[in-house]
Amino acid sequence: MKVLNLAGVAPSTVFSHVPLANALRNAGHQVMTTASVDSMLESIAGVGLSAVRTTDPALSPKQIITDSGLTYVPEDPVEREVMAGRWYAHMEYVTFGALREFTEDWRPDVIISGVTSYAGPLLAAELGIPYVRHAWDIHDPRLMDGGAEEQLREQLKELGLDGLPEPAMTIEIAPPSLRPKDAAPAQLMRWIPGNSQAVLEPWMYTKGADTRIGVTVGTGVATYNQYDFLQGIVENIATLDAEVLVAVGEDAAPELRARLENVRAGWIPLDVVAPTCDVLVHQTGGSTMMTGLSFGVPQVLIPDTSMYRAADMARRLAETGAAVVLSPEEATSEVIAKTCREILDTPSFAAAAAGLAEEIAALPAPAEVAQGIERLVRERH
């Protein structure tokens, strides 16, 4: 069986595809993986998957959107979510011609398409093969789907479609209690981290104190000069008699290490360090959230409130009792430290996170889902 895997626009979306892609390869199938932007090819190859270029190396996501004229950024979070669907749809359609050419040389039997990889359903419809929609986190994409459908109206009409094609299978990785009450039936799958790895140091997998708090604010620390913010967080958390671990890109690590001599900072495989943490502090990245939950770690979430996606995921997790949400305005270094202390002193947070970890562990493994995809393809032939 030949599987074409469309993995999205960011390293975290690439990482989400790794467990199922590996399960399919381990079952003897061929798997090829593409991304919406050229910069993701290194991430795809870096996690051991076969990367296929279907993008223009000269085009960044920003340039693609600028060239499209879709530059309006709504202030309302819901409207912005719909607009995001239009942005993703356009970025995906830019790759459509190259995807079509690739499938002339290597025709897939099934397409596994990430949540915003809207070229997947279009290509599957054109080829007459099934497509599988693969969730990346707990986010509900229905608002984005509306924007994407609007953006792709003419392309859908050319294929004789009134709307986005329905997937033959939808894979969801959220634990059942975190799924929306009106969510459609889906094939559930256990979340297993698929992030890229590194040569490990003992401090990455061994606590240096009774309590360890992990902090990450994404990959833009150096770009957005967030050193003072991170330094304040670390210095305030240090008053809790806790070891602090800061996961940052290697471009930012030297300055942080120089500012904070006793902090562990650098690029750390999250699946290695998360099991050693008592609390994770982050900006509501879906992959970070799910990795923490898979190991039963309660979280402090600081979502960008202008982003419906982040705010919605943070709210839903907080409602389970496994997290506390702080707005960017609330999230001073002092408040973050106080919130970490509250979580450490209140056993119900750890208990709620442990309950979600048990739900995740009980879901079907990627190997079992791979067998379902095999059956799906057999039935279509």
From TrEMBL:
InterPro entries xref list: EryCIII-like_C, EryCIII-like_N, UDP_glucos_trans
Segments forming domain Erythromycin biosynthesis protein CIII-like C-terminal: 233-375
Keywords of the record: Transferase
Highest taxon listed in the record's lineage: Bacteria
Domain Erythromycin biosynthesis protein CIII-like N-terminal per the UniProt entry, residue ranges: 23-218
Pfam families per record: EryCIII-like_C, EryCIII-like_N
Protein name (database record): Glycosyltransferase
